[in-house]
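Reply to dn_fold:

You asked what the input looked like. This is it:
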Amino acid sequence: MNDRAIPKEAHAMAPPETDGERTVMLACHDLTRIYREGPQDVTVLDGLSLEVHAGERVAVVGSSGSGKTTLLNLLGGLDRPSRGDVRIAGETLLDLGSAELGSFRNRHIGFVYQFHHLLAEFTAVENAALPLIVRGLRKKAAESRALELLDKVGMAARADHKPGELSGGERQRVAIARALVTDPSLVLMDEPTGNLDQATAASILAMMDELARTTACAFVVVTHDTALAAHQDRVLKLDGGRLTEQCQGS
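and this is what came back:
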């Protein structure tokens, strides 16, 4: 097996769905999440449905407490819905056990948070390569791929620096490289430009544009940044546990 090969899964994954000629990379139907607070049930998401196609960028906006983080956690398989299902690249997440789900996330989902969550003892290239090392690739091959992504986000010259030696914007760019290093089917972003200066945020938007054009990766971006939201293909508002289309992105 070569360095870039991926270990085979124990089960065969279903092919992604299609909508006409477009591949549906993410689909959820009747997605509901209810939390128990004391004697009461609190419904955060209420029968929500969503489809995102390959290469599409979708922004989700909404007030604080509207359920945006809950939605991201469900889409990323970090939480289980009370009702409904989530399908990514043709696979229903509820059909996967814990180990299978962890492997699936590693292969198909990239996460970018407002706060970078880098490991302080690792260099930028080691942090960016970590998903591939977890997958089982040799360190040299994983870091070679990570350097490609660091170069795309303008961080190749800082690859050997640890997070404590990087600015906030630089750390976030490393986190974005880490999310993209596995060539994921879906990237989930939670306020990805919240801690970036205007120039760095613009470079991230340009990179997202390139990836949307040249790969099948789909993006779901939760943000309060109106400029970032308007730059996406679609803008959806989360309110009352449901999504409604707001306007066409630029």
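Residues 1-15 have pLDDT under 50 and may be disordered.
Hope that clears it up.
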